[in-house]
Amino acid sequence: MLSEAVQRCRGCDLYRNATQAVFGDLEAGSAVRHPRVDLMLIGEQPGDSEDREGHPFVGPAGKLLDKCLEEAGIDRRRVYVTNAVKHFKWEPRGKRRIHKKPSLREMHACRPWLDAELETVGPKVIVCLGATAAQALLGSGFKVTQAHGKVQRVAGSPPVVATWHPSAILRAPTDEERHSQMRALVEDLRAAAKTAGTAGKVSRRKSGLK
Ligand code: URA
Questions:
Q1: 152-174: average pLDDT
Q2: Domain containing 16 — which CATH number?
């Protein structure tokens, strides 16, 4: 199984300081098998909570994502959520583990796992949450601020929609900016669901990689 094989990955050094590799799943603890989903959401890398719990987007950014998915009429249990990089990269600050952006080399080293997920899950539409995932799939010149919500056609890939990363929204300097970015994330998720032909109602197919 991919989710077991990834635990033995030594493609870069990030495994040394991480608790575990975090692979995608439909929802935390989902045991549903045989994937085929409409939307695949790709974030950057697991955070502190994800590293401990072994599931993507279960910490504060995940809670915000859940809220936006709900508002967009999308059932999180019916989308496949994962990250471009599977190990948590961090640096110590006092007792805390502070997120560090993965390097290009680390992103490239992890790419075969993302490709394996894409091939197994076979999503109709990919949603990139934030610049790291967007640049991994759409090239280093891609700017989420300028092109979020627009459907990108990529040869040999399902259509891609890039949008704000929930962590960026949590860090927004003002309430006004936070609300505006949240509204944009919800709209972009709706656009992705519409492109997948589900118009905000992701179909009730069973999926999961475990
Ligand atoms: N941020 C991400 O990009 N992914 C997670 O799983 C959690 C936070």
A1: 97
A2: 3.40.470.10
